[in-house]
Write a structure and sequence with these properties.
The chain contains twelve helices and 20 strands. It has about 450 residues and is of the alpha/beta class. It has three domains: about 45 residues, no CATH class; about 350 residues, Alkaline Phosphatase, subunit A, CATH 3.40.720; about 55 residues, no CATH class.
Length: about 450
C-alpha cells in the first residue's frame, strides 16, 4: 500500500522513493535536504509580481482592530468585543466581520515593536527602513530631500522595474499629512519625508494620484495641455518618432527619452494609457463591493494597476476620511466604529476576495500597516495616543501563509510577549516575497553602498 511520510519541511514523499534512496541515517540525510530544496524551489516559483501597500497613516490602534484584549481592565480593553474568525483560535474586532470571514487568507504579525512614538521619524522609518539623518528631531517635518533613503516602492521600482510603459511605483495619494490653515476651514497638504525615491533619483519617484481615484483629474499629468486636442497631440508624437527614427542612441539622453515615451503613453493620446486609471469599465456591483468612497475606489484602482504589471502601488490612507484619519487622540471609538473600521473592512476584504477569485492573490502581496500602534490605556478624551512599542501588521497573498499569527503581545497589548518584530523585518519580508534579496546594494548621492534592507525575513510566514 502506498504510504506517505511528512517530514519537517511539510513535503509529502512516497515511501517507495525513500526505500530506493537507501535506509537508516543515510536515508534521512538524503531525503530531508531534497524535500527542503523542493519547498524552496516551489516558494521561489510563486514569488509575487506586485505589492499593494495599504498604509494607515496616523497609527491604527491594534487593541481595537486585530489584537483585542477582552480580559484586560476596561480602561485598556475599551468597548469593542472580539469575534471569531474563519481560523480557529484567532479573533479580531467585531467591526471587521468581512475580514474575519477571510482570516484564512491573511497573516497577522502582532509583535511589531520599535522604541519611537513620533509620526515623522516613524513614517520615515517604516517606509524606508532607515532612521532620518537627525533621528533626535521628533518633529522633523521638512519636505522630502534628495539625500533621503527611498520609499519601499522606489526600491522595488529600481530593482524589479516595470513590465509596461506604466510607472513602476504609483502612490494613491502621495505620503502627506493634512494640516489646518489658521482661521480657515480647510486643510493644506504637506508632503512627508520617506514618501519619495530620495537618492535613487527622480526616475523612481512615485507617480502621484492625488485626486479622486478613477477620474482623469486624479493626476494632473494625465490631462493634455490646454488647447491641445488628442488628435493634435498624437500627430506631434508621431512626428517626433519620425524625426528620431534611425538616430544613433545617446546614453545621456536615454533616461529622458524613456520618461518622455512614458508621458506620451500616460496621456492616452497614442496608446490609451490613461484608460488603465479609469474605473468606468468596472461593473457597478464590483465598485459597490469595494465601496463608493475614496479608499474603496483606490483599492479597486490598485488591483487594476497590478493587473497592468505595476510592481508597487501604495495607498496612504489618511486623506480618504472625514475624521482625522488614524491619529485618534480623541473620540477613538466613535471614529473607528463610525467611519474607519467600516471603510477598512469593506475595502480591504473586497481586495483580498477579488484577487483570490481572479486567481491573482498569490501573485500580489498585500501589506496593511501604520507607523505605530496606540496606547493600551485610554486617555481622558476617549482616545488612544501614540505607541511605538507594539502594533499589528497584516500580510496577505504573495507567498504569505494565510491563517497565521506571528508573535504575541502581553496581556495589555503594551509590549511583545514573544517573537518581537522590528518594522524593518516587515520590509525585508516584503522584498523576499517580491523576489528581491535584502543584500542587494543601492548607492546614495555620495556613492556609498547600502543594502536595500537591514531587517530579517520572517521565514515562518512564508
Amino acid at each position: 500500500m502506498l504510504t506517505l511520510f511528512k517530514g519537517q519541511a511539510g513535503i509529502l514523499c512516497d515511501r517507495r522513493e525513500l526505500l530506493r534512496a537507501g535506509g537508516g541515517f543515510a536515508l534521512a540525510s538524503f531525503v530531508l535536504p531534497s524535500c527542503l530544496d523542493l519547498r524552496r524551489a516551489e516558494a521561489r516559483s510563486k514569488q509575487a509580481t506586485s505589492c499593494i501597500l495599504v498604509y494607515l497613516l496616523g497609527g491604527p490602534p491594534h487593541l481595537d482592530t486585530f489584537d483585542l484584549k477582552p480580559e484586560a481592565p476596561s480602561e485598556i480593553r475599551g468597548p469593542f468585543r472580539p469575534i471569531r474568525t474563519s481560523v480557529p483560535g484567532t479573533q479580531i474586532c467585531e467591526h471587521l466581520p468581512r475580514l474575519a470571514a477571510l482570516a484564512g487568507k491573511f497573516a497577522l504579525v502582532r509583535s511589531v515593536s520599535h522604541p519611537n512614538a513620533n509620526h515623522t521619524p516613524m513614517i520615515y522609518y517604516t517606509l524606508t527602513g532607515r532612521h532620518t539623518s537627525q533621528p533626535s528631531m521628533d518633529n522633523d517635518v521638512r519636505p522630502p530631500q534628495r539625500m533621503d533613503f527611498p520609499h519601499m516602492g522606489s526600491v522595488v521600482a529600481k530593482f524589479k522595474g516595470g513590465g509596461s510603459a506604466l510607472p513602476a511605483y504609483i502612490a494613491l495619494p502621495q505620503v502627506a499629512v493634512r494640516s489646518s490653515i489658521a482661521g480657515e476651514y480647510k486643510r493644506a497638504r504637506t508632503l512627508l519625508r520617506g514618501g519619495g525615491s530620495g537618492f535613487l533619483g527622480p526616475r523612481y519617484d512615485p507617480f502621484p494620484m492625488d485626486g479622486e481615484p478613477g477620474f482623469g483629474e486624479a493626476s494632473r499629468v494625465l490631462s493634455l495641455p490646454e488647447g491641445v486636442s488628442p488628435e493634435r497631440f498624437q500627430a506631434r508624437a508621431a512626428m517626433l518618432s519620425l524625426l528620431e527614427r534611425g538616430k544613433p542612441p545617446v546614453d545621456s539622453a536615454d533616461e529622458f527619452q524613456a520618461i518622455r515615451r512614458q508621458a506620451v503613453f500616460l496621456t492616452g493620446a497614442a496608446n490609451g494609457g490613461s484608460r488603465v486609471f479609469s474605473l468606468d469599465s468596472e461593473p457597478a456591483p464590483c465598485r459597490d463591493r469595494y465601496g463608493r468612497h475614496r479608499f474603496g475606489q483606490a483599492l479597486l484602482l490598485a488591483r487594476r494597476l497590478t493587473e497592468a504589471r505595476v510592481p508597487f502601488v501604495a495607498i496612504h490612507f489618511n486623506e480618504m476620511t472625514l475624521c482625522d484619519g488614524w491619529d485618534t487622540h480623541q473620540k477613538n471609538f466613535a471614529a473607528l466604529e463610525g467611519e474607519l473600521l467600516p471603510l477598512l473592512d469593506q475595502g480591504l476584504s473586497a481586495l483580498i476576495e477579488d484577487l483570490d477569485q481572479r486567481g491573482r492573490l498569490e501573485e500580489t502581496l498585500i501589506v496593511c500597516m501604520g507607523e505605530f500602534g496606540r496606547t493600551p490605556r485610554i486617555n481622558p478624551n476617549a482616545g488612544r495616543d501614540h505607541w511605538g512599542d507594539c502594533s499589528t501588521t497584516l500580510l496577505a497573498g504573495g507567498g504569505i501563509r494565510g491563517g497565521s499569527v506571528y508573535g504575541e503581545s502581553d496581556r495589555h497589548g503594551a509590549y511583545p510577549k514573544s517573537d518581537p518584530v522590528d518594522p524593518v523585518d516587515i520590509q525585508a519580508t516584503v522584498y523576499r516575497c517580491l523576489g528581491l534579496d535584502s543584500s542587494l546594494v543601492m548607492y546614495d548621492h555620495l556613492q556609498r553602498p547600502f543594502p536595500i534592507s537591514e531587517g530579517k525575513v520572517l521565514e515562518r510566514l512564508l
